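Entry type: protein chain
Record version: 2
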Amino acid sequence: MRHPQFLGPPLAILLLLLVTVSVGAAPRAVDVVVDGKKPADYVATRQGQAWAVVIGIDEYENLPRLKYAVADARSVAALLEKQGFHVATLYNAQATQQAVLNELGDKLVERVGEGDRVAIFFAGHGETRKVKSGKEMGYLLPVNGEQEALAGTSLSMGLIKELSDALPSKHVLFLVDVCYGGVAGQQFRSLPPMTEAYLKTITRERGRQLITAGGAEQQAMEGPEWGHSVFTHYLLEGLGKGLADLNDDGIIPASELYSYLDSRVFAAAQLKGHQQRPELWAMAAEKGEFVFTPRAAVSRDLAVRPEKPAQVPSGSKPGRQDEKTASDQGQRKVFVNGSRLTETDIASLERAYGVPVQPGRYWYDKTSGLWGQEGGALAGQIHPGLNLGGPLRADASQGNTGVFINGRELPMQEVQFLQQLGPVFPGRYWMNAQGVGGMEGGPAIFNVGAAIAAQQKKGGGMGSGYNRTTPGGHLGSDGNCSYYFDPQSGSSVMSGNCE
């Protein structure tokens, strides 16, 4: 069932740094080219029209009322319309069993073509029942559904599979904001690498996929802090802001969307003392995937909640060209994030901090106040939000760890230090000047400052090993190598000195 509202224990600050239960960040794929085209351009040539049916039910006739299901559905419908989908909606009393069957089994069949794609979103109640054979069967409940008469008043997973198979479209994706089981298909957890062969396969073959908000024994959270369910909140963030484009290639296949939702929803639920982890299922043997192509996906480097918008100071010209064209007569050459500072800027810094600013090239993180020499690791911290230099580059420290904070990829020496506080896994994170942060687009899930203070209070001990089991898998470290293991998929991530 979908949980009307979850009231958990007070929000606790996690002292483990960058702990997530995802299988890590997706490999970078911005340079993948298919038949001379970038992924988004290639996908556009392989897709027909986009269709969607969006269903949301708060006011059930025979079941507890929900608070955010219709709001969730309306927001999803608006988002899909902006992305070019033809959207049909069924809200509350409109969403009877017969109306849903007519929409999916009759109207859609007539509308869609063989090269089209169809997304079906459902927010409401769901049930999982065991049949006499011992197998589980999942059900979605329309507005007139009855828990005591599921077979005759609801939509079984078997029926949903039949309806999707009957659609002539190439790709069908069910986004079900319900925690339930009994899905007839193959479950996936790992994210496939983006390659030319993979992209050709998922766009060529048919595909029938389903993403649920959680498993059979879980409940889907919704609450005022999101104004939606937690699943829909991150669905909107992922597709609307492009945050689910984990490898920055301009497209979001269903498997990549799932990987994003899995990490965000699980982390948010854990902070509430709740267990909820989305699931991805393939309901057909073919390997095709539904692919979203957001028209105006926001760069994830701009979604890290900066204290102030990044601005280039007056008198500065962004880029290395400044170094060649600016007059050097009696002026120090000080560059921050690729932009040369004026003498006025330099003088202001020296007055504020009482130390001379040496000529050179530096990076500066406006969100956290951290800084260092260009190509080097963290050297110190000053006030955040200063109007210095251009945007922070991902390669500012020439890191190659896959761990990004506020858009900067950390070098190994920084990651090794952080591993002394707890396990560190590849991913993209935001962090403020107090050391509080979380995954990009997500809530706070760690506090570096508190972790360091706690270790200092214990008198050090920042190299000891540990091994602990969480609802999402096993975490451990021997003081040098940190690892995460997912027993369900067999997938694992290791970081640090793991030779």
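Comment: Residues 3-29, 296-329, 460-475, 482-496 have pLDDT under 50 and may be disordered.
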